[in-house]
Amino acid sequence: MTLPPMPDTAAPLVSITSPTNGASVRGTITLSASATDNVGVAGVQFRVDGANHGSEDVSAPYSIQLDTSTLTPGNHTISAVARDAAGNTATASVVITVLEPLVETVVYRINAGGPSYTDTQGRQWSADQRFNTGNTASVTNPIAGTNDDVLFQSERWDPPAAPELAYSLPVTNGSYRVNLYFAEIYNGCFSVGCRVFDVLIEGVLVLNDLDIFREVGSLTALVKTFDVTVSDGVLNIEFRHVVENPKISAIEVIALNNP
Question: Cα separation of 5 and 2, whole Å?
Answer without folding.
Answer: 9
